[in-house]
Amino acid sequence: MYALIYKLVAFTIRLICRINGGLIVKGKENIPAEGGVIVAANHISYLDPPILGSVTPRRATFMARKGLFNIPVLGWMIKEAAFPVDRERTRPSTIKETVRRLRKGELIAIFPEGRRSETGEFLKAKRGVGMIMSLSRAPVVPTLIIGSDKALPVDAKWLKRAKISVVFGKPIYYTSIEEGKGSGEHLQHEAISEKVMDAVKELKRQYADNSG
Description:
This protein is α/β, with parallel strands linked by helices. It has one domain: Glycerol-3-phosphate (1)-acyltransferase, CATH 3.40.1130. It has helices spanning 2-19, 48-55, 74-78, 92-103, 128-136, 148-151, 185-211, and strands at residues 23-26, 37-41, 60-65, 82-85, 107-110, 140-146, 164-168. Strand 3, helix 3 (74-78) and strand 4 (82-85) form a beta-alpha-beta unit. Helix 4 (92-103) packs across helix 5 (128-136) and helix 5 (128-136) crosses helix 7.
């Protein structure tokens, strides 16, 4: 039953985006068809989670701020598509739950920056995605979202007309990442997170070149 609701909601979100200015999705073939995978995207709008969930070819599970689960109706709606995270302090149990889900073969959507960028510029990646990749050995698909901040700017109450693009890059596999030998785990995880964000930034450069 939930699978049907998920598909219906995803279709509705895509339809609204297309009517509201257009929706372009590129690189869906870069997402592995099965097995645990991390989709790591930049975060520029509150629209990003629903948009990302609606365009992935597989059902996505999100790490969502725990306070959202206490909101009437919304909490009920997201509990099947997300699990709670304490943004102020990432607990070991959260990392373990994420790794467990990846090992079960789920697709987990993560925003490495940890919070929404209010300027649209990239923020420094937190080490969480590096830690999760290191522990799970799951591939990471760097993902670029463009235009969602125009459709729903900071403090906006209503959608504005804007074209939204989502670009999925080539997956990054753990074996392709050289962790710093002799360095501490924290530094190793930070290095992996930076590599992921660098891949997202490269997608933006490529997209800008192709658009021009």
